[in-house]
Amino acid sequence: YQVPNWSGGWFRVSDKGTLEVTPSPGLHAPLRAIVDEIVDRGESLPVILRFPQVLAGRVKHLNEAFQSAIAEYGYTGHYQGVFPIKVNQRRVVVESIAAAGYDYAHGLEAGSKAELALCLAQKMHPDALLCCNGFKDDGFIKLALWGRSLGKNVVITIEKYSELERILKQAKALGVKPAIGVRFKLHARGSGQWEESGGDQAKFGLNAYELLRVVERLKEENMLDSLVMLHTHIGSQITDIRRVKVAVREATQTYAGLIAAGAELKYLNVGGGLGVDYDGSKTTFYASMNYTVKEYAADVVYTVQEVCKARGVPEPIIVSESGRALTAHHAVLILPVVDVTGPTRDIEELVAPAEDSHQLIHDMHEILENISMRNYREMYNDAVGDKGTLHNLFDLGYVSLEDRARGEALFNAILRKIAKLIQNEKYVPDELEDLQKVLADKYICNFSLFQSLPDNWAIQALFPIVPLDRLNEKPTRQATLVDITCDSDGKIEKFIDLRDVKATLPLHEPGKEPYYLGVFLMGAYQDVLGSAHNLFGKVSEAHVTVRPGGKFNIDLFVRGQKARRMIESMGYEEPMLRDSIEDQADAAIKVGTLTDEQEHELLEDYGEELLGYTYLEYEN
Ligand code: PLP
């Protein structure tokens, strides 16, 4: 499962073969024990475990990385991060980051009016930045300006030229001096899945001509000192550190150009993009990154300094808007495996043909008996042909349901035999490449992919998935995961691998004890982007603090959304639902399909489900 490669030290496998969270040296707690306590309290799964200590640790790690680079290079400015709350607006996330970041003057970034309203209410260090990105109307701008009156270091980023006039107008009307940032469209691009966020065709930002027009316009207004920040962003999850360096160089040259044009910029904002190594491969693969947080900080500081020295301009305060890198590690989604299905779980006795079986069944049995290294390809093709004929003959009524069952079981047995034969072969014929996936078990997990891991569905994002225990026991099954939505897309068939992406995940045969999988590094974007497919709602969550001695506290348990809430979000109202059921029950009593006592019970059950969790709740 590559735990040491992707965990960044925040998780580890104990000697006992269980996964532990390790928020700081000396502190560790087994995830299984936390889940067991939640279940013992009578709460239902799935659940997200959140570790505020991990969030605090990530804030410290990022700030210290910049501080040590700044000290090492003798950089004369300093670093001030901002957390873009769109990555995860959950209260525990924002408050944990704000608290851990206070002493570093780590600020926040808002991309909409609602996000700004949330950020303005947070306790922040007086120097901490509150960056306002995204397209803005007058209301957004006014709110940002009021933020300055409240003593907050609010910077309004111009994303398109026309926003400048709006800002000037509102600032005059309120009598508040604005602090303005300007987002520049770098021609440098990121790497990986968000490459399109940068470059000339980027959605946000001004080109060089518009940038100079902003300077001229502010000069006209005698307000050039309001322009305090140059902002850039080349996309999230930058996999290749070289792209960071190229972008930061271009950004710093632009900064120097603006200084030369008379601007007095204080901040150079290099945006987000600091990656997360989801697969632990340390490569430029889209789910990885070929650098560390420390190397990122060092390269940003070094590059900014190098250009500033060459251009003879002051070294600015460096700002980064790292979101993914701060939040991904803090959350673990716990998936209970509720059932297992799959083609290798056929009833074995079906594999031996009965005397009176159809000739095709005898043929397929012969194939099974005679497969060898020399002929497996030919045998495979014959078996595929026989299976096709079997289905055609079944449709025409010439093959019985019993023979169809035998034929399918035999076909699966043939595939299993071939898979075993070629498991160590370097060369596998094209038609057999998917064999492992075809033969894999389907572990049915109690969750909705669309609610909890939307990026896996939408953009094939990879997340490490690991059983919470039995890690000192060799897994014997190969599996894909399916969720409980009625959507065939609700499945996970891509898993992390150091060299490639794996089609199956090795897992243990679930026994009598519940078998839980943890989905890791899912704390960035997933909570926010999730959707209510099939009315599966937000998952319950536990906020957990780890204490010395392997102990932990569940500080807060927030129950997931109830069915009623999901139904009401679609425009229905609870009394309307209950009235309808009552009317139907009364009518049923009249025609005799329901008794008075049963009506009472039915209404009670209905009400209980309305107030219940939307996920499966098995008693045992
Ligand atoms: N800043 C801006 C302007 C963004 O658009 C984004 C997200 O793409 C971020 C910051 C956060 O990026 P990341 O989560 O990669 O740090």
TrEMBL record:
Residues 61-328 form the Orn/DAP/Arg decarboxylase 2 N-terminal domain. Its cofactor is Mg(2+); pyridoxal 5'-phosphate. It holds the Pfam family Arg_decarb_HB. It comes from the Bacteria. Pathway: Amine and polyamine biosynthesis; agmatine biosynthesis; agmatine from L-arginine: step 1/1. Its EC number is 4.1.1.19. The modification N6-(pyridoxal phosphate)lysine is found at K86. Gene3D superfamilies: 1.20.58.930, Alanine racemase, Lyase, Ornithine Decarboxylase, Chain A, domain 1. Keywords: Decarboxylase, Lyase, Magnesium, Metal-binding, Polyamine biosynthesis, Pyridoxal phosphate, Spermidine biosynthesis. Residues 565-616 form the Arginine decarboxylase C-terminal helical domain. Substrate binds at L268, N269, V270, G271, G272, G273, L274, G275, V276, D277, Y278. Residues 355-436 form the Arginine decarboxylase helical bundle domain. It is an enzyme of class 4 (lyase). It catalyses: L-arginine + H(+) = agmatine + CO2. Catalyzes the biosynthesis of agmatine from arginine. Belongs to the Orn/Lys/Arg decarboxylase class-II family. SpeA subfamily. This is Biosynthetic arginine decarboxylase.
